[in-house]
Amino acid sequence: MGFMPSRQLQAYRDKRSQDATPEPFSGLLVPQTGKLFVVQQHQASHLHWDLRLEVDGVLCSWAIPKGPSRSLSDKRFAAQVEDHPLDYATFEGQIPEGNYGAGSVIIWDRGYYQRLNDFAEGFRKGKLLFELYGHKLRGRWTLVRMKDGDNLKNWLFIKERDAWAEDNTPYPDTSVVSGLAVHELADTQKIARNIARRLTRTPGAQPVTGLVSCAPMLATSGESFDRPGWLFEFKYDGYRLLLERDGDSVTLRSRNGHDLSAGFPEIVDSARRLPLDRFLLDGELVRHNDRGAPDFGLLQQRAKLSDQLQVARAAIEAPCTCYVFDAPQLGRFDLRSVPLEKRKQHLERLLPDYGVLRFSAHVKRYGNKLYNTARQLGLEGIVAKRADSSYRSARSSSWIKVRQDRSGDFVISGFKANRRNPRDIGSLAIAEYRGDRLWHTGFVASGLTSELRAVLGERLSGLEETAAPEGAGSVADCQWLDSALVCEVRYREYTRDGHLRHPVFVRMREDKAAEDCQSHFDDPEEPALSPAPEPDVTVTNPDKIYFPEAGYAKAAVCDYYQAIAPWMLPLIAGRPLVLTRFPDGIHGKSFYQRDAPGYVPDWIERRVLWSEGADREISYFIVRSAAALKYLANMGTIVIHSWHSRIDDLVHPDWCVLDLDPKRAPFTDVIRLARAAGELCEELGLSAYPKTSGASGMHIMIPLGRQLTHDQSRTLGELMARVLVSRHPAIATIERSLSARKNKVYLDYLQNGQGRLLVAPFSVRAEPAATVSMPISWHEVNGRLHNERFHIGNALKRMRASRSYSFADILTADADLPGALSRLNDIIRKVAI
């Protein structure tokens, strides 16, 4: 006769006392699906693994002394034991001494399974064939009863040949819910204390008494790139999720602050079992499809479930995964000011190796390769993050999202009826916010299925009518609605009038609020509008004399800026600019122009930024073309100043500058100190790029590869200046006041800082000789050098002849800042600054 399991729990209960062990007894808290499986690692008198399959409302169980193996040659002995209640699949903890099976139990793996043969017949004949869908165990497996006389409880657990079969690759022995090893379970407080000890020694970690409250940090859009000092992660197609734990309370919050905890109990359960009782984690919730790729449609289906039983069944049959990529808080420490790379190191130690909570791994420096991998895997894209970035509840250029296709989220502001069927939707009107005003961006029809149109028709029919968004003009036959519905649209680009070109409906975005649909004018790497053709700039008053001593008129300045653009633009493109305007020439009145005036044409790019000095927003000029340079010159601009950083990363400058200002000191001393600065950079392993100021001094520019903040750059400049003063005390000083300089060259490192300005390379200066700030090579830093040597009359000829030297290399030069700072520290200790 064949053996059939009892399907009763009496044997289980007879071995245990409900008052003496935390093990479950009812079996009522887990819904019956017929698909649940779990593997628990159990350190009792001997270490073993318990395989449990849901069969007829209980967990049919086998004890496997050596544990599962994915090797085809391994046949692991499995002794069938008493059936367990379904609730046992959730048990991880300590069985107290004196109880049956006393010791530690972890959930080694869990998931669902599919039967590949009839189990009733399989139990009779002694062969069960099934496919496992766990976090560790995947693919086809079989249980085969051993021919052992009348003993029907001895089986073999064997991996079947498939894509998941591998030889000599052990599984990690940690829990898929808590991340703990079985030997760690007895003292989880020890783990928490070790984490706290490491956090105490982490610079920037701030002790806090409660749970910090913050909105998620957001990324700007851009293109893929390779760059030292950056981390690159996969971008997952799902819901942004903040995981908050305070004691036993665990809350999952969407980016809009909605509580999603009830819908995803598997994530809540895992977060509650982590060995810290307080944290704030940031991640992306996804639902994988059969190919293992994140599927937003499947996630939306899962999110729509509200019935508690349906949600509980889905947590078994359709579990979601949260890829956690940041930790604003761990334990009693606020980590938002800790560099990202360090935050991720702490985070990785906390999370399970496998399970529904997963660490979002990253690669350093090589973003292009990861982006290509994401494309091959069919993922949405990647996210590039500065390794030293802090966590800020705002959109930041320190995080850059790189999508395969350009897409955005838009408000559904109305619809047009189908011409053939007026009761059907023909196209959706979509809009986005530009500031606090809603702007029309066109209509989308592609991608709207008949089923979706029917659903949208019902949802839109109950909305109130309203006025058209701005920019809609006199669109006919459109019903404008007061809507908060949001959809994602893929598109090629923006047209000149601000509409989307070739829009395709992708999906509804129930997780986003309408006010979050901000214009892509805010994305520095992704201009919102296709640039309009740039007209020829007509020079007004071309014969007005600007430089009477040198004989140059306004036309000569305009022509110079247009001609020098190929060399100048790479160094100023994308930087906020400040102009010095001389409407009546260098001997007339002059003024700074920070704010772009309202009459500037639309094809001149501007960017509104907050100015701490002015305590208000400033509309800065952003120049990217020769025509734009010529236009600024026609406004009476002679001198152009630029920021050290670009709008795609305002926090991190491209260079550190030492301004050698002689005032009453001889220029020969400037040359000596410039060469000394170059030699110091060589000692430190840094590149250095000299240029004349065009007035009286020189600028030494040191590439940073955007690895330092403005404050750090200023500190680097100060330390280098102090070293130079210590080596050349007779000719160098860092005293700012003229009276204290005593005819020495002032090494001005204070030019470094957020919003600080530098006379742009190739800028004209308001000097009688019409000089320019000229980039030079180091062999030109000699006794023959002087500022009057380079002017608008010969600068262009010089650059056309200088093909071997490119000052723009400063933007891509390697900068070993850690090594340089270490060497600088050694020098400082020796000279005792």
Description:
This protein folds into four domains: 10-172, no CATH class; 188-403, 2-Layer Sandwich (D-amino Acid Aminotransferase, Chain A, domain 1), CATH 3.30.470; 407-522, OB fold (Dihydrolipoamide Acetyltransferase, E2P); 655-753 and 774-783 and 807-827, Alpha-Beta Plaits. Helices cover 21% and strands 30% of the residues. The chain has an eight-stranded antiparallel beta barrel. Strands 10, 13, 14, 15, 16, 17 and 18 form a seven-stranded mixed β-sheet that branches. Helix 13 (710-727) runs parallel beside helix 16. The longest helix has 19 residues, at 554-572.
Largest sheet: 8 strands, antiparallel, barrel
From the spread of the alpha carbons, the general shape counts as globular
- Strand-residue proportion: 25-35%
* Named CATH architecture of the largest domain: 2-Layer Sandwich
Q: CATH-wise, what's the superfamily of the largest domain? A: DNA ligase/mRNA capping enzyme
Helical proportion, percent range: 10-25%
The structure class reads alpha+beta
For this structure, the CATH topology of the largest domain is D-amino Acid Aminotransferase, Chain A, domain 1
